[in-house]
Design a protein that fits this description.
The complex is a heterodimer of chains A (about 425) and B (about 160).
Chain A: E1 5-9, E2 20-26, E3 29-36, H1 44-47, H2 56-60, H3 68-83, H4 89-119, H5 125-131, H6 133-154, E4 163-164, E5 167-168, H7 174-200, E6 215-220, E7 223-224, E8 231-234, E9 237-241, H8 247-250, E10 253-255, E11 258-262, H9 274-281, H10 287-295, H11 308-333, E12 347-355, E13 358-366, E14 372-378, H12 380-399, H13 404-417, E15 429-433
Antiparallel strand pairs in A: 1-2, 2-3, 4-5, 6-7, 6-8, 8-9, 10-11, 12-13, 13-14
Chain B: E1 5-10, H1 20-29, E2 38-44, H2 50-54, E3 59-67, E4 75-78, E5 83-85, H3 99-108, E6 115-121, H4 134-137, H5 140-155
Parallel strand pairs in B: 1-2, 1-3, 3-6
Antiparallel strand pairs in B: 4-6
The chains are: A alpha+beta (about 425), B alpha/beta (about 160).
Protein backbone atom coordinates (compact mmCIF):
# COMPACT_ATOMS: atom_id res chain seq x y z
CA UNK A 1 0.00 0.00 0.00
CA UNK A 2 1.46 3.36 -1.01
CA UNK A 3 1.72 5.74 1.91
CA UNK A 4 2.33 9.43 2.30
CA UNK A 5 3.87 10.32 5.63
CA UNK A 6 5.04 13.66 6.97
CA UNK A 7 6.47 13.62 10.44
CA UNK A 8 8.09 16.65 11.94
CA UNK A 9 8.56 16.15 15.64
CA UNK A 10 10.13 19.42 16.74
CA UNK A 11 10.68 19.86 20.41
CA UNK A 12 11.50 22.85 22.52
CA UNK A 13 15.24 23.00 22.19
CA UNK A 14 18.08 25.12 23.45
CA UNK A 15 17.08 25.31 27.09
CA UNK A 16 16.07 21.72 27.67
CA UNK A 17 17.52 19.72 24.85
CA UNK A 18 15.90 17.22 22.59
CA UNK A 19 16.22 15.92 19.10
CA UNK A 20 13.92 16.39 16.16
CA UNK A 21 12.55 13.56 14.07
CA UNK A 22 11.85 14.37 10.42
CA UNK A 23 10.31 11.91 7.95
CA UNK A 24 8.91 12.84 4.54
CA UNK A 25 7.48 10.11 2.33
CA UNK A 26 5.21 10.45 -0.68
CA UNK A 27 3.27 7.54 -2.15
CA UNK A 28 5.41 5.02 -0.32
CA UNK A 29 8.70 6.60 -1.39
CA UNK A 30 10.87 7.89 1.45
CA UNK A 31 12.26 11.31 0.54
CA UNK A 32 13.82 12.44 3.77
CA UNK A 33 14.60 10.78 7.10
CA UNK A 34 16.56 12.73 9.67
CA UNK A 35 17.54 12.61 13.30
CA UNK A 36 18.44 16.23 14.13
CA UNK A 37 20.03 17.51 17.30
CA UNK A 38 19.77 21.31 17.40
CA UNK A 39 20.98 21.62 20.99
CA UNK A 40 23.10 24.66 21.85
CA UNK A 41 26.69 23.92 22.86
CA UNK A 42 27.34 24.19 26.58
CA UNK A 43 31.07 24.96 26.58
CA UNK A 44 32.12 22.80 29.53
CA UNK A 45 35.52 22.29 27.87
CA UNK A 46 35.97 26.07 28.00
CA UNK A 47 34.55 26.44 31.52
CA UNK A 48 37.28 24.28 33.04
CA UNK A 49 40.15 26.19 31.44
CA UNK A 50 42.16 28.07 34.03
CA UNK A 51 40.59 26.06 36.85
CA UNK A 52 42.66 23.95 39.24
CA UNK A 53 42.84 20.17 38.84
CA UNK A 54 41.04 20.08 42.20
CA UNK A 55 37.96 21.83 40.74
CA UNK A 56 37.51 19.84 37.54
CA UNK A 57 35.31 17.06 38.95
CA UNK A 58 32.93 19.47 40.69
CA UNK A 59 32.39 21.42 37.47
CA UNK A 60 32.07 18.57 34.97
CA UNK A 61 29.83 16.58 37.29
CA UNK A 62 27.21 19.17 36.32
CA UNK A 63 27.29 18.08 32.69
CA UNK A 64 24.62 15.59 33.66
CA UNK A 65 22.05 15.13 36.41
CA UNK A 66 21.69 11.42 35.63
CA UNK A 67 25.29 10.33 35.10
CA UNK A 68 27.12 12.80 37.34
CA UNK A 69 29.06 10.01 39.07
CA UNK A 70 30.27 8.77 35.69
CA UNK A 71 31.48 12.23 34.60
CA UNK A 72 33.10 12.64 38.02
CA UNK A 73 34.93 9.32 37.74
CA UNK A 74 36.08 9.88 34.14
CA UNK A 75 37.43 13.33 34.98
CA UNK A 76 39.06 12.22 38.23
CA UNK A 77 40.77 9.32 36.44
CA UNK A 78 41.99 11.70 33.73
CA UNK A 79 43.37 14.11 36.35
CA UNK A 80 45.10 11.22 38.12
CA UNK A 81 46.58 9.95 34.86
CA UNK A 82 47.80 13.45 33.94
CA UNK A 83 49.35 14.11 37.34
CA UNK A 84 50.71 10.58 37.83
CA UNK A 85 48.58 9.88 40.92
CA UNK A 86 48.06 6.29 42.08
CA UNK A 87 44.88 5.08 43.80
CA UNK A 88 44.74 2.32 46.44
CA UNK A 89 42.97 -0.97 45.79
CA UNK A 90 40.47 -0.08 48.51
CA UNK A 91 39.62 3.30 46.93
CA UNK A 92 39.39 1.66 43.53
CA UNK A 93 36.83 -0.88 44.81
CA UNK A 94 34.76 1.73 46.61
CA UNK A 95 34.71 3.89 43.48
CA UNK A 96 33.47 0.94 41.42
CA UNK A 97 30.73 0.40 44.02
CA UNK A 98 29.85 4.09 43.63
CA UNK A 99 29.78 3.69 39.86
CA UNK A 100 27.51 0.64 40.09
CA UNK A 101 25.01 2.62 42.14
CA UNK A 102 24.67 5.00 39.22
CA UNK A 103 24.29 2.20 36.68
CA UNK A 104 21.37 0.83 38.71
CA UNK A 105 19.91 4.29 39.29
CA UNK A 106 20.01 5.30 35.63
CA UNK A 107 18.93 1.97 34.15
CA UNK A 108 15.99 1.59 36.56
CA UNK A 109 14.85 5.12 35.75
CA UNK A 110 15.16 4.51 32.04
CA UNK A 111 13.45 1.14 31.89
CA UNK A 112 10.93 1.89 34.61
CA UNK A 113 9.90 5.43 33.87
CA UNK A 114 10.64 5.97 30.18
CA UNK A 115 10.53 2.64 28.33
CA UNK A 116 7.93 0.63 30.24
CA UNK A 117 5.02 2.94 29.28
CA UNK A 118 5.85 2.09 25.62
CA UNK A 119 5.79 -1.62 26.37
CA UNK A 120 2.43 -1.36 28.11
CA UNK A 121 1.02 0.99 25.46
CA UNK A 122 0.65 4.00 27.77
CA UNK A 123 1.76 7.61 27.31
CA UNK A 124 3.73 7.92 30.56
CA UNK A 125 4.50 6.40 33.92
CA UNK A 126 1.60 8.24 35.58
CA UNK A 127 -1.15 6.06 34.00
CA UNK A 128 1.17 3.04 34.34
CA UNK A 129 1.14 3.60 38.09
CA UNK A 130 -2.64 3.15 37.98
CA UNK A 131 -2.53 0.08 35.71
CA UNK A 132 0.40 -1.83 37.21
CA UNK A 133 1.06 -0.27 40.62
CA UNK A 134 3.05 -3.25 41.94
CA UNK A 135 5.58 -3.01 39.09
CA UNK A 136 5.89 0.77 39.46
CA UNK A 137 6.40 0.33 43.21
CA UNK A 138 9.18 -2.22 42.54
CA UNK A 139 10.80 0.30 40.18
CA UNK A 140 10.50 3.03 42.79
CA UNK A 141 11.98 0.82 45.53
CA UNK A 142 14.94 -0.03 43.28
CA UNK A 143 15.42 3.60 42.31
CA UNK A 144 15.29 4.60 45.98
CA UNK A 145 17.83 1.92 46.89
CA UNK A 146 20.15 3.14 44.12
CA UNK A 147 19.82 6.74 45.32
CA UNK A 148 20.57 5.82 48.92
CA UNK A 149 23.47 3.67 47.73
CA UNK A 150 24.86 6.78 45.96
CA UNK A 151 24.21 8.88 49.07
CA UNK A 152 26.23 6.45 51.17
CA UNK A 153 29.28 6.17 48.92
CA UNK A 154 29.25 9.39 46.89
CA UNK A 155 28.02 11.65 49.71
CA UNK A 156 24.84 12.53 47.84
CA UNK A 157 22.49 11.16 45.20
CA UNK A 158 23.58 13.41 42.36
CA UNK A 159 26.86 15.29 41.91
CA UNK A 160 29.19 13.30 44.21
CA UNK A 161 31.24 15.03 46.88
CA UNK A 162 33.48 12.23 48.22
CA UNK A 163 35.72 11.90 45.16
CA UNK A 164 39.13 13.51 45.14
CA UNK A 165 42.21 13.01 42.98
CA UNK A 166 44.06 10.14 44.68
CA UNK A 167 41.09 8.48 46.35
CA UNK A 168 38.07 9.46 48.40
CA UNK A 169 37.56 12.01 51.15
CA UNK A 170 35.30 9.62 53.06
CA UNK A 171 34.87 5.87 53.09
CA UNK A 172 31.73 4.06 54.18
CA UNK A 173 32.06 2.28 57.53
CA UNK A 174 32.01 -1.52 57.70
CA UNK A 175 28.61 -1.31 59.42
CA UNK A 176 27.26 0.84 56.59
CA UNK A 177 28.62 -1.59 54.01
CA UNK A 178 26.97 -4.52 55.79
CA UNK A 179 23.67 -2.60 55.79
CA UNK A 180 24.00 -1.85 52.08
CA UNK A 181 24.82 -5.48 51.32
CA UNK A 182 21.70 -6.63 53.14
CA UNK A 183 19.57 -4.20 51.15
CA UNK A 184 21.14 -5.34 47.87
CA UNK A 185 20.33 -8.96 48.71
CA UNK A 186 16.75 -7.95 49.50
CA UNK A 187 16.44 -6.11 46.16
CA UNK A 188 16.80 -9.27 44.07
CA UNK A 189 13.03 -10.09 44.12
CA UNK A 190 12.23 -6.57 42.85
CA UNK A 191 14.79 -6.98 40.05
CA UNK A 192 13.18 -10.28 39.08
CA UNK A 193 9.72 -8.68 39.19
CA UNK A 194 10.80 -5.92 36.78
CA UNK A 195 12.43 -8.49 34.46
CA UNK A 196 9.25 -10.60 34.50
CA UNK A 197 7.09 -7.54 33.78
CA UNK A 198 9.25 -6.72 30.76
CA UNK A 199 9.06 -10.35 29.64
CA UNK A 200 5.26 -10.22 29.84
CA UNK A 201 5.25 -7.19 27.52
CA UNK A 202 8.12 -8.35 25.28
CA UNK A 203 5.88 -8.68 22.23
CA UNK A 204 5.76 -4.85 22.16
CA UNK A 205 9.51 -4.70 21.46
CA UNK A 206 9.82 -4.05 17.70
CA UNK A 207 11.53 -6.77 15.72
CA UNK A 208 14.14 -4.66 13.95
CA UNK A 209 17.80 -5.38 13.30
CA UNK A 210 20.65 -3.60 11.56
CA UNK A 211 24.22 -4.90 11.38
CA UNK A 212 25.99 -2.63 13.85
CA UNK A 213 29.46 -2.02 15.27
CA UNK A 214 29.28 -2.01 19.07
CA UNK A 215 32.01 -0.27 21.08
CA UNK A 216 32.71 -0.57 24.80
CA UNK A 217 35.40 -1.10 27.39
CA UNK A 218 36.93 -4.55 27.76
CA UNK A 219 39.00 -5.73 30.71
CA UNK A 220 41.14 -8.87 30.50
CA UNK A 221 43.10 -8.72 33.72
CA UNK A 222 41.20 -9.98 35.61
CA UNK A 223 38.45 -10.74 33.06
CA UNK A 224 35.56 -8.52 34.10
CA UNK A 225 32.26 -7.27 32.69
CA UNK A 226 33.75 -3.83 33.03
CA UNK A 227 32.34 -0.35 33.45
CA UNK A 228 35.51 1.21 34.88
CA UNK A 229 38.85 -0.31 33.82
CA UNK A 230 40.25 -1.75 30.62
CA UNK A 231 40.78 -0.80 26.98
CA UNK A 232 38.45 0.06 24.13
CA UNK A 233 37.15 -2.76 21.97
CA UNK A 234 34.54 -3.30 19.28
CA UNK A 235 32.49 -6.10 17.78
CA UNK A 236 34.33 -5.31 14.50
CA UNK A 237 37.80 -5.51 16.05
CA UNK A 238 39.50 -8.41 17.83
CA UNK A 239 42.11 -6.35 19.64
CA UNK A 240 41.91 -3.48 22.08
CA UNK A 241 42.90 0.19 21.87
CA UNK A 242 44.29 2.08 24.87
CA UNK A 243 41.83 4.57 26.32
CA UNK A 244 44.53 7.22 25.80
CA UNK A 245 44.03 6.81 22.05
CA UNK A 246 40.26 7.30 22.17
CA UNK A 247 40.30 10.06 19.54
CA UNK A 248 41.43 7.45 16.98
CA UNK A 249 38.31 5.42 17.83
CA UNK A 250 35.73 8.21 18.05
CA UNK A 251 36.93 10.12 14.94
CA UNK A 252 34.53 12.95 15.78
CA UNK A 253 33.18 14.99 12.89
CA UNK A 254 30.63 17.70 12.22
CA UNK A 255 27.36 17.07 10.46
CA UNK A 256 24.95 19.61 8.94
CA UNK A 257 21.84 18.19 10.58
CA UNK A 258 23.16 18.39 14.12
CA UNK A 259 24.99 20.75 16.44
CA UNK A 260 26.36 17.69 18.26
CA UNK A 261 29.45 15.98 16.90
CA UNK A 262 29.06 12.55 15.32
CA UNK A 263 31.50 9.64 15.46
CA UNK A 264 32.52 6.60 13.40
CA UNK A 265 35.18 3.90 13.50
CA UNK A 266 35.10 0.84 11.20
CA UNK A 267 31.71 1.67 9.68
CA UNK A 268 29.71 4.82 9.04
CA UNK A 269 28.40 4.67 12.59
CA UNK A 270 28.81 2.75 15.84
CA UNK A 271 26.73 2.18 18.93
CA UNK A 272 27.63 2.41 22.62
CA UNK A 273 25.64 1.54 25.75
CA UNK A 274 24.35 -1.50 27.60
CA UNK A 275 23.83 -3.57 24.46
CA UNK A 276 27.36 -2.72 23.28
CA UNK A 277 28.83 -3.81 26.63
CA UNK A 278 26.73 -6.97 26.51
CA UNK A 279 27.80 -7.80 22.96
CA UNK A 280 31.47 -7.39 23.88
CA UNK A 281 31.43 -8.93 27.37
CA UNK A 282 28.34 -11.14 27.82
CA UNK A 283 30.30 -14.22 28.91
CA UNK A 284 31.54 -12.27 31.95
CA UNK A 285 28.11 -11.51 33.42
CA UNK A 286 27.30 -12.61 36.98
CA UNK A 287 25.34 -15.90 37.20
CA UNK A 288 21.96 -14.35 37.97
CA UNK A 289 22.41 -11.67 35.28
CA UNK A 290 23.20 -14.43 32.81
CA UNK A 291 19.98 -16.23 33.80
CA UNK A 292 17.95 -13.04 33.32
CA UNK A 293 19.54 -12.45 29.88
CA UNK A 294 18.51 -15.98 28.87
CA UNK A 295 15.01 -15.51 30.28
CA UNK A 296 14.59 -12.29 28.28
CA UNK A 297 15.98 -13.83 25.08
CA UNK A 298 19.05 -11.59 24.92
CA UNK A 299 21.99 -13.31 23.21
CA UNK A 300 25.44 -12.09 22.20
CA UNK A 301 25.46 -10.64 18.69
CA UNK A 302 22.03 -9.02 19.07
CA UNK A 303 21.70 -6.07 16.64
CA UNK A 304 18.22 -4.91 17.64
CA UNK A 305 18.67 -1.42 19.19
CA UNK A 306 15.36 -1.79 21.07
CA UNK A 307 17.02 -4.59 23.08
CA UNK A 308 19.30 -2.01 24.74
CA UNK A 309 16.64 -1.61 27.43
CA UNK A 310 16.66 -5.38 28.01
CA UNK A 311 20.47 -5.28 28.30
CA UNK A 312 20.01 -2.55 30.91
CA UNK A 313 17.84 -4.85 33.03
CA UNK A 314 20.49 -7.56 32.75
CA UNK A 315 23.11 -5.04 33.88
CA UNK A 316 20.98 -3.99 36.85
CA UNK A 317 21.08 -7.60 38.06
CA UNK A 318 24.81 -7.80 37.32
CA UNK A 319 25.78 -4.71 39.31
CA UNK A 320 23.67 -5.73 42.31
CA UNK A 321 25.00 -9.29 42.38
CA UNK A 322 28.60 -8.18 41.79
CA UNK A 323 28.39 -5.50 44.47
CA UNK A 324 27.25 -8.05 47.05
CA UNK A 325 30.50 -9.94 46.39
CA UNK A 326 32.66 -6.79 46.34
CA UNK A 327 31.34 -5.75 49.74
CA UNK A 328 32.39 -9.17 51.08
CA UNK A 329 35.91 -8.51 49.76
CA UNK A 330 36.02 -5.03 51.32
CA UNK A 331 34.77 -6.35 54.67
CA UNK A 332 37.28 -9.21 54.68
CA UNK A 333 40.14 -6.75 54.10
CA UNK A 334 38.64 -4.22 56.55
CA UNK A 335 38.17 -0.52 55.75
CA UNK A 336 41.37 1.40 56.44
CA UNK A 337 41.69 5.19 56.70
CA UNK A 338 43.59 6.86 53.88
CA UNK A 339 45.38 10.17 53.78
CA UNK A 340 45.87 11.35 50.23
CA UNK A 341 48.51 13.95 49.42
CA UNK A 342 48.71 15.25 45.88
CA UNK A 343 51.03 17.83 44.38
CA UNK A 344 50.35 19.48 41.03
CA UNK A 345 52.55 19.10 37.98
CA UNK A 346 52.24 19.54 34.24
CA UNK A 347 50.66 16.73 32.28
CA UNK A 348 48.06 15.66 29.75
CA UNK A 349 45.99 12.46 29.85
CA UNK A 350 42.61 10.84 29.36
CA UNK A 351 40.18 9.03 31.61
CA UNK A 352 37.51 6.65 30.42
CA UNK A 353 34.58 4.87 32.05
CA UNK A 354 31.29 3.43 30.88
CA UNK A 355 28.36 5.76 31.51
CA UNK A 356 25.03 3.94 31.81
CA UNK A 357 24.38 5.05 28.21
CA UNK A 358 27.83 4.13 26.86
CA UNK A 359 31.54 4.74 26.83
CA UNK A 360 32.65 8.21 27.97
CA UNK A 361 35.98 9.91 27.32
CA UNK A 362 37.51 12.88 29.15
CA UNK A 363 40.91 14.40 28.42
CA UNK A 364 42.65 17.27 30.24
CA UNK A 365 45.96 19.09 30.06
CA UNK A 366 47.44 20.91 33.07
CA UNK A 367 50.28 23.39 33.48
CA UNK A 368 52.92 22.94 36.21
CA UNK A 369 50.67 24.64 38.80
CA UNK A 370 47.92 22.13 38.03
CA UNK A 371 45.70 24.62 36.21
CA UNK A 372 43.77 23.28 33.26
CA UNK A 373 44.90 24.56 29.86
CA UNK A 374 42.78 22.32 27.67
CA UNK A 375 39.93 19.81 27.81
CA UNK A 376 38.22 17.42 25.41
CA UNK A 377 35.10 15.48 26.37
CA UNK A 378 33.30 12.94 24.17
CA UNK A 379 29.96 11.78 25.54
CA UNK A 380 28.19 8.52 24.69
CA UNK A 381 25.02 10.07 23.28
CA UNK A 382 26.99 11.89 20.59
CA UNK A 383 28.59 8.56 19.68
CA UNK A 384 25.10 7.16 19.04
CA UNK A 385 23.69 9.93 16.81
CA UNK A 386 25.02 8.45 13.54
CA UNK A 387 23.65 5.02 14.53
CA UNK A 388 20.22 6.51 15.25
CA UNK A 389 20.26 8.15 11.80
CA UNK A 390 21.23 4.86 10.13
CA UNK A 391 18.56 2.98 12.09
CA UNK A 392 15.98 5.53 10.91
CA UNK A 393 17.06 5.04 7.29
CA UNK A 394 16.61 1.25 7.49
CA UNK A 395 13.60 1.18 9.82
CA UNK A 396 11.30 3.76 8.14
CA UNK A 397 10.86 1.87 4.84
CA UNK A 398 10.13 -1.30 6.83
CA UNK A 399 7.29 0.29 8.81
CA UNK A 400 6.00 2.95 6.41
CA UNK A 401 2.84 0.99 5.64
CA UNK A 402 1.81 1.16 9.29
CA UNK A 403 0.89 4.83 8.89
CA UNK A 404 2.06 8.13 10.30
CA UNK A 405 1.13 7.65 13.96
CA UNK A 406 2.75 4.22 14.17
CA UNK A 407 5.89 5.43 12.39
CA UNK A 408 6.16 8.41 14.75
CA UNK A 409 5.68 6.29 17.85
CA UNK A 410 8.18 3.65 16.73
CA UNK A 411 10.82 6.25 15.88
CA UNK A 412 10.32 7.90 19.25
CA UNK A 413 10.62 4.50 20.90
CA UNK A 414 13.82 3.91 18.94
CA UNK A 415 15.32 7.18 20.18
CA UNK A 416 14.26 6.34 23.73
CA UNK A 417 15.86 2.89 23.49
CA UNK A 418 19.27 4.58 23.10
CA UNK A 419 18.66 6.31 26.44
CA UNK A 420 20.00 9.59 25.07
CA UNK A 421 21.51 12.29 27.23
CA UNK A 422 20.93 15.26 25.00
CA UNK A 423 21.02 17.77 27.77
CA UNK A 424 19.82 18.16 31.27
CA UNK A 425 21.11 21.62 31.87
CA UNK A 426 17.95 23.18 33.24
CA UNK A 427 14.65 21.95 34.58
CA UNK A 428 12.71 25.09 35.24
CA UNK A 429 9.08 25.01 36.11
CA UNK A 430 6.83 26.42 33.41
CA UNK A 431 3.34 27.02 34.77
CA UNK A 432 0.00 28.64 34.12
CA UNK A 433 -2.15 29.55 37.07
CA UNK A 434 -5.53 27.83 37.00
CA UNK A 435 -6.80 29.12 40.32
CA UNK B 1 16.02 9.72 60.47
CA UNK B 2 13.77 11.67 58.15
CA UNK B 3 12.49 14.94 59.50
CA UNK B 4 8.79 15.70 58.97
CA UNK B 5 9.42 18.79 56.83
CA UNK B 6 11.70 19.09 53.83
CA UNK B 7 12.86 22.15 51.92
CA UNK B 8 14.18 21.36 48.44
CA UNK B 9 16.14 23.86 46.37
CA UNK B 10 15.98 22.90 42.70
CA UNK B 11 18.02 24.10 39.76
CA UNK B 12 21.41 24.25 38.12
CA UNK B 13 23.89 26.84 39.45
CA UNK B 14 25.72 26.75 36.10
CA UNK B 15 22.64 28.13 34.31
CA UNK B 16 22.41 31.59 35.88
CA UNK B 17 18.97 32.23 37.44
CA UNK B 18 18.00 28.56 37.19
CA UNK B 19 20.27 28.17 40.22
CA UNK B 20 18.22 30.43 42.52
CA UNK B 21 16.64 27.47 44.34
CA UNK B 22 20.05 26.04 45.15
CA UNK B 23 21.38 29.48 46.14
CA UNK B 24 18.51 29.92 48.61
CA UNK B 25 18.82 26.51 50.28
CA UNK B 26 22.56 27.03 50.66
CA UNK B 27 21.85 30.20 52.61
CA UNK B 28 19.00 28.61 54.54
CA UNK B 29 21.27 25.69 55.50
CA UNK B 30 23.45 28.13 57.44
CA UNK B 31 20.61 28.64 59.90
CA UNK B 32 19.52 24.99 59.94
CA UNK B 33 19.91 24.91 63.74
CA UNK B 34 16.75 27.01 64.04
CA UNK B 35 14.69 24.30 62.34
CA UNK B 36 15.18 20.94 64.09
CA UNK B 37 12.16 19.43 62.27
CA UNK B 38 13.36 20.42 58.81
CA UNK B 39 15.71 18.78 56.29
CA UNK B 40 17.18 21.34 53.91
CA UNK B 41 18.35 19.75 50.65
CA UNK B 42 20.10 20.99 47.51
CA UNK B 43 18.11 18.83 45.07
CA UNK B 44 19.96 20.09 41.98
CA UNK B 45 18.34 18.86 38.78
CA UNK B 46 17.29 15.68 40.50
CA UNK B 47 14.17 15.02 38.43
CA UNK B 48 12.52 11.81 39.58
CA UNK B 49 14.68 11.72 42.70
CA UNK B 50 12.44 14.41 44.15
CA UNK B 51 9.98 11.55 44.63
CA UNK B 52 12.30 9.96 47.19
CA UNK B 53 13.17 13.22 48.93
CA UNK B 54 9.55 14.06 49.72
CA UNK B 55 8.39 10.52 50.59
CA UNK B 56 7.44 10.03 54.23
CA UNK B 57 7.30 13.77 55.05
CA UNK B 58 4.42 15.78 56.43
CA UNK B 59 5.26 18.82 54.34
CA UNK B 60 7.46 19.61 51.37
CA UNK B 61 8.52 23.12 50.40
CA UNK B 62 10.02 23.30 46.91
CA UNK B 63 11.99 26.31 45.69
CA UNK B 64 12.59 26.60 41.96
CA UNK B 65 12.92 29.11 39.18
CA UNK B 66 9.62 29.28 37.30
CA UNK B 67 8.28 30.82 34.13
CA UNK B 68 5.07 32.33 35.49
CA UNK B 69 4.62 35.31 33.20
CA UNK B 70 5.68 37.65 36.00
CA UNK B 71 8.36 40.34 36.05
CA UNK B 72 11.86 38.94 36.73
CA UNK B 73 12.59 38.53 40.41
CA UNK B 74 8.95 38.01 41.42
CA UNK B 75 8.39 35.26 43.97
CA UNK B 76 5.05 33.45 44.14
CA UNK B 77 3.87 30.84 46.60
CA UNK B 78 1.52 28.22 45.17
CA UNK B 79 0.41 24.63 45.56
CA UNK B 80 0.53 22.00 42.79
CA UNK B 81 -3.30 22.17 42.51
CA UNK B 82 -3.18 25.89 41.72
CA UNK B 83 -1.19 25.53 38.51
CA UNK B 84 -1.09 23.59 35.29
CA UNK B 85 2.20 22.66 33.67
CA UNK B 86 2.82 24.51 30.42
CA UNK B 87 5.78 22.28 29.62
CA UNK B 88 5.82 20.15 26.50
CA UNK B 89 7.62 16.88 27.16
CA UNK B 90 9.41 14.98 24.40
CA UNK B 91 9.76 11.75 26.42
CA UNK B 92 13.04 11.15 24.66
CA UNK B 93 15.42 11.11 27.54
CA UNK B 94 15.68 11.00 31.30
CA UNK B 95 16.96 14.53 31.18
CA UNK B 96 13.55 15.88 31.03
CA UNK B 97 11.82 16.64 34.24
CA UNK B 98 8.46 18.09 35.04
CA UNK B 99 8.33 18.70 38.75
CA UNK B 100 4.54 18.86 38.69
CA UNK B 101 4.35 15.41 37.09
CA UNK B 102 6.69 14.00 39.73
CA UNK B 103 4.40 15.41 42.42
CA UNK B 104 1.36 13.87 40.67
CA UNK B 105 3.07 10.48 40.59
CA UNK B 106 3.90 10.77 44.29
CA UNK B 107 0.23 11.45 45.02
CA UNK B 108 -0.92 8.56 42.86
CA UNK B 109 1.37 6.14 44.69
CA UNK B 110 0.29 7.44 48.09
CA UNK B 111 3.78 8.78 48.82
CA UNK B 112 3.11 12.50 48.73
CA UNK B 113 3.29 14.71 51.84
CA UNK B 114 0.02 16.08 53.20
CA UNK B 115 1.10 19.58 52.20
CA UNK B 116 3.22 20.61 49.23
CA UNK B 117 4.11 24.22 48.67
CA UNK B 118 6.13 25.63 45.77
CA UNK B 119 7.96 28.94 45.78
CA UNK B 120 8.48 29.94 42.15
CA UNK B 121 10.90 32.71 41.29
CA UNK B 122 10.65 34.31 37.86
CA UNK B 123 14.13 34.28 36.27
CA UNK B 124 15.63 37.16 34.36
CA UNK B 125 18.20 35.15 32.45
CA UNK B 126 18.79 31.42 31.94
CA UNK B 127 22.02 30.70 30.07
CA UNK B 128 25.31 28.92 30.75
CA UNK B 129 26.80 31.16 33.44
CA UNK B 130 27.68 30.85 37.11
CA UNK B 131 25.70 32.89 39.60
CA UNK B 132 22.21 34.37 39.60
CA UNK B 133 21.59 37.84 38.20
CA UNK B 134 21.66 40.98 40.31
CA UNK B 135 17.92 41.57 40.18
CA UNK B 136 17.35 38.25 41.97
CA UNK B 137 20.37 38.56 44.22
CA UNK B 138 19.08 41.92 45.52
CA UNK B 139 15.89 40.19 46.62
CA UNK B 140 17.45 37.17 48.32
CA UNK B 141 16.63 38.52 51.79
CA UNK B 142 13.01 38.99 50.75
CA UNK B 143 12.87 35.42 49.40
CA UNK B 144 14.38 34.06 52.60
CA UNK B 145 11.86 36.01 54.71
CA UNK B 146 9.02 34.40 52.74
CA UNK B 147 10.49 30.92 53.18
CA UNK B 148 11.22 31.47 56.88
CA UNK B 149 7.63 32.52 57.55
CA UNK B 150 6.43 29.41 55.69
CA UNK B 151 8.67 27.34 57.97
CA UNK B 152 7.37 29.09 61.06
CA UNK B 153 3.79 28.41 59.96
CA UNK B 154 4.74 24.78 59.32
CA UNK B 155 6.03 24.29 62.85
CA UNK B 156 2.57 24.74 64.31
Amino acid sequence: MAKTVNINVHHVTRVEGHGNIVVNATNGKVEKVQWQVPEAPRFFEAMVRGRSYEDIQTIVSRICGICSITHSLASTKAVENALGIKVSEQADKVRILMHYSEQLQSHVLHVGYLVSPDLFGLPSVVPLAAKAPEVVMAVIRLHRLANEWSDLIAGRTTHPVTLTPGGLTKFPTEKELRGLQERLKNAVPDLKAVAEAVLSAASAIPNFTRETEYISLKQDNPPTYTFYHGDITSTDYDGAVSIHDWQSVANEYMNDQSTAKWTKWHRDSYTVGALARFNNNAELLSPLANDVAKMLGLAKGCCNPFMNSVAQIVECVHVVETSIGMIDELLTAGIKPENVKVSPKAGKASGCVEAPRGILFHQYEFDRKGNCVGADICIPTNQNHAAIQQDFEKFVPEILDEGEDAVRLKLEMLVRSYDPCISCSTHMLNVEFVR
Amino acid sequence: MRRPIVVLGLGNPLMADDGIGVELVERLAQEAGRYPAVDIIDAGTGGMSVLHMIEGRRKAILIDSAHMGETPGTIRRFTPEEVRSAKILAHQSLHEADLLRVLTLAEQLGQAPETMVIFGIQPQVVEPRQGVSGILLDRVDHYLTEIRSELERSAG
